[in-house]
């Protein structure tokens, strides 16, 4: 009985090891590293902005405090975790027209010069099939005539083919908002859903500009 149990345990262990090995062998060779952003900007403009430079300056001064507070609200509401959760609701690999790829979510990089200018890899990975997706801007606007909207900028970096310097695709998306920003605690769930939907739509607009290879 003891011998049988030992053999069964050994077989079970071997089975788990075989499954893990098979999973490792089946893991996609390509890596997509996704970097959310820490940014949050806001701008409210009124009718004064339609009256030239003087009107625009007066409008900016009038809404200065509001723009600061709404920018802080956006940074909190559309923080890195929210961006990651939103992107997980869609098939990034399919939308970016990639071969099977592991998706690795990275810690945001605070230095905007690095996220928007660097053409080298931003992670330590040496994978031959390597790609990056960066969110580089979260921008809330409210205009007197057009209403509220969320705009996002993205950069897709392609290092496939052994490139040391990436091929870049830069772009943006912009969609209207109906509930964000929330004015009361009760409105926050609807505002969050509104923000998530606009963010995802903005990414999908951007991804249309990425060509398959």
Describe, in plain words, how this protein is organized in 3D.
With 213 residues, the protein is an alpha/beta fold. It has helices at 2-26, 52-62, 64-77, 80-87, 92-95, 112-117, 188-207; strands at 30-35, 41-45, 101-105, 130-143, 147-158, 167-176. A hairpin with an 8-residue loop joins β5 (147-158) and β6 (167-176). Strands 1, 2, 3, 4, 5 and 6 form a 6-stranded mixed sheet that branches.
Strand content: 15-25%
Low-confidence stretches: 1-23, 46-64
**How many strand units?**
6
Helix content: 40-55%
Number of helices, where a helix is a run of at least 4 consecutive DSSP H or I residues = 7
Radius of gyration: 23 Å
Mean pLDDT level: 83
Distance between the termini: 59 Å
| Run of helices and strands | HEEHHHHEHEEEH
Overall SS class: alpha/beta
Shape annotation? elongated
Largest sheet: 6 strands, mixed
